[in-house]
Amino acid sequence: MVVYDYHVNAQIVNLARKDAEFIYAGKRGGHHTLTQDEINAVLVEQAKKGRTVCRLKGGDPFIFGRGGEEAETLVEAGIPFEVVPGISSAIAAPAYAGIPLTHRKFATTVAFIPGHEDREKTGSAIAWDKIMGIDTLVFLMGVRNLPYIAEQLMAHGRPSETPVAIIRWGTRAEQNTVTSTLGGVAELVKSRDIRPPSVMVVGDVVNLREHLSWFEKKPLFGARILATRQDTGGFEPLARLGAEIVEFPTIEQRDPESWEDADRAIGEIGSFDRLVFTSANGAAYFMRRLMELGRDIRDLAGIRICAIGPKTRDSLERFGLRVEMVPEDFRAEGLVAAFGDVCGKRILLPRAKEARDLFPDAVRAAGGEIAVVTVYRTVAPDRHSKRLARLLREGRINVATFTSASTFKNLVSMIGSEAVELLRGVTIAAIGPVTRKSIEKQGLTVTVMPERATIEDMANAIRDWAEANIPVSRAG
């Protein structure tokens, strides 16, 4: 079971076991899905049922996260636990805004202060007079009380010209940083409509942002890209340029419903002239099954091996196989053109259950014999799609990527009837004409399509589009 908070990045939640149960315990702007007592009760109740429970918090559980209170409850109930330290937004947000909280020339002390206390209550839990001697002050959850905080700091001796920074959604694609002074920040935040979640930094170190700002200067800062395939490593160059990659795989690979055809082909593997792989997945599943049947790469001696794309070639070479042909066009059409005369040749094509017959039909038409066997199938995973739908609804996805018709069709199926409408305001990137046709059939437009059908080429095409089309806001 995973009991998670509002500010937890969904990318982390996606790493949980697929059969895990999720309980949302978010607190947002005073609206509590569960009270603290109810959260405590859930943790105890589920642990006593023998379940392994993860209490997943944004930031660090022991810094203004009530982790200490929850741990005390577990101790009282006799439930063992462990704490995994996190990185508090009090540290992360200023770092991503280019503001070091300590600096040998400007600040040797720092304090973290909750900023959401009720200004109407009698007295204050904050010793305003005591914190005046601390160089850097970091207020969390204080945007709504900002005028009061600034008023108290100035009333207790902080000069009105003291530098102040407000960082909203620190470390995320929508990070927004404004800088001002204690005397002017309240009006500035009001005019800019800065809302929670935000971190407020007070002190001379704020002036260093002018020279040290780095995240908001990245070329793809502000871009949020939806990846609908399992392997998102090809998008890593975009992440390094500042884009945020939202991983939401809409397909996953599984064994075929039956190995009968593949096993028969492997049993007579020596009769084939050529072995063709159209994907890295096909290569991996075929080689695994080959070895499960007590065979190995020696059984492939004398067979010419062909692959579509460098990733497929690389996966085969990791098995110690020599790939003799990689067509320039990384599609079935390219393979047909590269093969030339296949008359009288016997070809084995291990592939996914759902695939086009263009290449097999061309081989047969040219007088060749081809055995097409299923070594894996793709299915739509069981995933929670509400957060993704919300991101699309709020216009917080810039680019949606689809590497096959299945990735698109499954996304539509998983989100539901509103999916197509939600995608109308999103730039769509696709690989291959079949994928584009499937998308355009729904009345959508494919804007980005690489010439070569690889993730790397798609990433390069997205980079070029984003640099030209996504405005970068570096307020403050």
Please name the defining characteristics of this protein:
476 residues, alpha/beta, Cobalt-precorrin-4 Transmethylase, domain 1, Methyltransferase, Cobalt-precorrin-4 Transmethylase, Domain 2, Rossmann fold, 4 domains, 5-stranded mixed β-sheet, 5-stranded parallel β-sheet, 20 strands, 32% helix, 18% strand
TL;DR?
The protein has helices at 10-13, 36-48, 67-76, 89-96, 146-155, 185-192, 209-212, 236-240, 260-267, 280-292, 310-317, 332-339, 358-365, 386-393, 405-415, 419-423, 433-440, 455-469, and strands spanning 2-4, 22-24, 27-28, 31-32, 54-56, 110-114, 136-140, 163-168, 176-181, 198-202, 224-227, 244-247, 252-254, 274-277, 304-307, 346-352, 369-379, 399-402, 427-430, 446-448.
Task: Describe it.
The protein has 476 residues and is an alpha/beta fold. It folds into 4 domains: 2-76, Cobalt-precorrin-4 Transmethylase, domain 1; 89-212, 2-Layer Sandwich (Methyltransferase, Cobalt-precorrin-4 Transmethylase, Domain 2), CATH 3.30.950; 224-251 and 382-469, 3-Layer(aba) Sandwich (Rossmann fold); 254-379, Rossmann fold (3-Layer(aba) Sandwich), CATH 3.40.50. Helix content is 32%, strand content 18%. The protein contains 18 helices and 20 strands. It has helices spanning 10-13, 36-48, 67-76, 89-96, 146-155, 185-192, 209-212, 236-240, 260-267, 280-292, 310-317, 332-339, 358-365, 386-393, 405-415, 419-423, 433-440, 455-469, and strands at 2-4, 22-24, 27-28, 31-32, 54-56, 110-114, 136-140, 163-168, 176-181, 198-202, 224-227, 244-247, 252-254, 274-277, 304-307, 346-352, 369-379, 399-402, 427-430, 446-448. It has a 5-stranded mixed beta sheet, sandwiched between helices. A 5-stranded parallel beta sheet has the order 12-11-18-19-20. α8 (236-240) links the parallel β11 (224-227) and β12 (244-247). The chain is elongated, with a radius of gyration of 28 Å. It starts with a strand and ends in a 7-residue tail after the last helix.
